[in-house]
Amino acid sequence: MVSKTEETQLNRLENQVDNGGGGAWEYLCLVRKLKVRRSEKVLKYGLSILNDLKKRSSLGTEEWTLYEQVAIAAMDCQSLNVAKDCVRLLRKAFPESKRVGRLEAMLLEAKGSWAEAEKAYSSFLEENPLDQVIHKRRVAMAKAQGDTSGAIEWLNKYLEIFMADHDAWRELAEIYVSLQMYKQAAFCYEELILSQPTVPLHHLAYADVLYTLGGLENLQTAKKYYASVIDLTGGKNTRALFGINLCTSAIGQLAKGRNKEDKESLELQSLAATALEKDYKQRAPDKLSLLTTALKSLKVSS
Amino acid sequence: MAADLVLDTAIRDWVLIPLSVVMVLIGVLRYFVSKLMRSNQVPDAKIVKEGQLIIRARNLRAAANFIPPKSFRARRLYYNNEENGLLIVPKGQAQNPQAQMFSDPNMAMDMMKKNLSMIIPQTLTFAWVNFFFSGFVAAKIPFPLTQRFRSMLQNGIDLSTVDVSYVSSRSWYFLNLFGLRGLFSLILGEENAMDDTQKMMQMSGFGFDPSKSLGAEKDSLDIVQHDWALPKFEHRAEAVLRELAR
Q: What's the protein's topology in the membrane (chain B) (predicted)?
């Protein structure tokens, strides 16, 4: 994950490069290190370095790293000719390399020749069955073809071995949510909470899934997780504040006042509502009336 | 006792400097040779999986209080049930790493390559130094030392009367052998510095047993008391919001 200081540094550099202040190479290095996706910028500035013979030769052996980076960025931007040129040059420099082979397979994938790319990837996997990047490419390929169930299958296979990879869990969770398989998604989000217990986004997504699942127990749990998001973000998360309101009213409907904790939870709701109102007043005063009617309808139903 | 030994400048030019230069060159050469011989080891799927499993189980143990009790119990059962839990290693199947080492010729081969690249040049240079440079007093360090250092600095000279601050050529060889690490890290890059002392440490640390750590992880997972932290969060959230509303 990109920390805040790194992000500000990245933005500063990007700004500087955008305005012609130089430092393109440093910017590209930082993008590569942080693994952020700024393909258009990378393509533009990377190409300008590669086309300038003097700048390119001053990089020394780093030149090839840049070729690789630009090739991937070009595939992302669908500038297939640029990508093809880069890969061809790399192939010339490293005739035996598997890394270049991977790039070639990715190029096939970018062109949409799925079958050939698939064949290339599976031959790589036969050689080295533990290549994480290729496993992930396969998932991405299935997803790009719209084959969600295939993507799920590949991801599950991947996670069977690399079960501590939280990014893969998140991807799987998002796919499950998109297919409305909420129970499975909930499991994935639990796994994410376990690996990164202090990231509020996981708590929020888990709460959303639980709320969508419905049922008294799930709603109560969802409310607890919304509350934890509020605690972790210092009450700045609007979605969690709305979530508290929705959960409380839904629980009220289901429990019909049987619940002993009713009073307590109502207090949390009213607090969340005031926080919301305050926030709207500050940032979107013209939508305040919408908010008050929405909140009122929630309260009436409870 | 001789107050001052006068060292011939020819000793400096023909013993001290050549010895150091040769040591450096051999270190560089050895680095490239070992790079050539290093076989690209493909890690075993089972070992990778076990490593990942341990990380995941450890995460579960550390963050258990953040998921609902039901989910926690389901997971613990998944890891720990006696029949097919992930962390259960069937008894006879636990492989002795020592036996594994001998059964897998590749592993033994790898070890041998590593050893050869370390031992052969060392014995050769030692023989070379012994043959050509034995018995020289090669240098003098500019401060006095106690008698204890005699074996370290005057290896190869059996004179008890020579002041300890004189360094014999064989000792100079040993000092170079162990002390050139900083120079190598400058020449070959930070992580490439091949240090003999470090290598020896690696050798002794050989024999990590994944099945044992799986068992340990299972035991510590067994005794985890699940105490759901989330109910507390409601009160904390209330406090946060109250603070915000003020």
A: Multi-pass membrane protein
